[in-house]
Amino acid sequence: MPRSVAQRPRISILMYHQIGRFLSPRSHRAVYCDIDRFKAQMAYLRYSGHQVISMRAAYEGLFLGASLPARPVVLTFDDGYENFREYAWPVLQKYGYPAMVYLVSNLVGRTASWFEEGRHAILMDRPVIRQLLKEGVDFGSHTCSHCRLSQCTEQQKRLEIVDSKAKLEDLLGEEVTAFCYPYGDYDPCSRDLVKEAGYSHALTCIRGIANTAENPFEIPRKAISYGDNLFGFFWKLDVKHARKDKSCHNPSHIIHGCDLDTEEY
Q: How many domains does the chain have?
């Protein structure tokens, strides 16, 4: 990794999906976080001296030399579920925390059809997204269809990456520079297309602090999951900093990805 990045204050970028009240999920546990635990986690950040910063501030601090506070944390939410507005955002507003939400551009206002339980999980619609934008929520791209990019042709990858940016910019009325790989699944071609499309940075499901990123388009995060009590949250946030890649080798390239069925990924 670049020496300057490694020497910056350690940044933990936390990954959430759905926030709310759920029966104990039998699968896809990394997609859920109970609201009471979420409230406790946000309170812990405040009273333990962590500073919640925007994704943009983290990127600029790591790669552009901007100043960073002590103990910085970034809060990210994948997919753009309606329960973010109902449950998570009021808690974040209470503490004045910024948040980054990654949207699936072709599924705005529909359901998370890419996994079985997702057919009941409603995604935010256009009016809600625009209202949250006015209230200070940041938005990034999570492709057009929540596909596994490594399994797409190069033409399909380009459409998923480029078209989602254009559609979200039309929806939001502002430039979209943040990208997140669905499932954390990508390959070198996908990464290079994200850069070519005009995004400034991209998040993965590689575990660890953001400072272990080798470039702005492969930034690690820490997944917060259904089974994480407050001690587990503390452990991931304040102790578990080492980078842990989860990848498989293809004859021509390396594919990175994650498993939604695991408690963390």
A: 1
